[in-house]
User: Fold this.
Amino acid sequence: MQDGTFLSAGDTAVTDRGDAPVPGTPAGAIAALLDGTCPVRDVLDRIGDKWSVLVITLLGDGPMRFMELKRAIELVSQRMLTRTLRALERDGLITRTVFPTVPPRVDYELTELGRGLHATLAELARWSYAHRADVEAARATYDAREADSQAQVEPESLRA
Amino acid sequence: MQDGTFLSAGDTAVTDRGDAPVPGTPAGAIAALLDGTCPVRDVLDRIGDKWSVLVITLLGDGPMRFMELKRAIELVSQRMLTRTLRALERDGLITRTVFPTVPPRVDYELTELGRGLHATLAELARWSYAHRADVEAARATYDAREADSQAQVEPESLRA
DNA sequence: CAGTATCCCTGCCGATACTG
DNA sequence: CAGTATCGGCAGGGATACTG
Assistant:
């Protein structure tokens, strides 16, 4: 299974660019990525949704109960918070502890696995934050060019 | 602006867990994250979509032209490939070079910024791949528990 | 070849109401 | 408090047809 592991996520380090000429393109790995066969896709799907990263981040500072999370995020609907928590629990990233009191109390906490992802996400966040100016500048430049090319087509509306 | 930077992505390293007790919960940072004010959300949105990571990965091995990418991914629609490439270009992650030949030829290539993200994504991919078994096991366990609890409700259908 | 334009459908997600 | 159930909007993304 060490043929076309997506992003060379396998055994060797590939932090920099092309260390291998790439045979023909890892078509197998790509197919796997789309089938849901690829473990990378799983994580991508999880962090791609609107709330998971937020929850993982909040739980990075220790366990919280349902309403604590709800109030902390505040813009999330009850439905989505529940779904998000269930998905994270299913993937073994958080634990769900029910205290059979009345009213009920449920604590959510990162597992060891969850803390690992939390750390990796922090890496990504750090990169994003460090390069926020570059991205913003790139967008400004791009949008300015767009506006210019539009300006050469639209002026007729002023001559009407 | 060093109050509640999301995921502590600011100036200090936080690779491991909670190094600060967290005052009250960084409500401001969370609001910013949802407003689109947060640079982390930008990256999350980008890598959260279906094709961006794939494209960045493929371009990690050098420039490619439109049809090369299309054929490499093969399941992507023309429409979505174009949109993905435009978004990446706008964010300054790739460059688009048009050769005014006939038929036209367009090359896409990672920028310096893009190569940085490529490296960070490789980190994430490596983590995902390294822990794929844990996630799979967690899911199996979870799903088995689910099936069990269902089994105590459903049997009536067998007694009908 | 490298796109743009149009149609359409699925599923994500929010709002609301109800329950143990 | 901590959920589940149901309805509905709308954006992401695919299929197809057309263009420079």
Remarks:
- The radius of gyration of chain A is 22 Å.
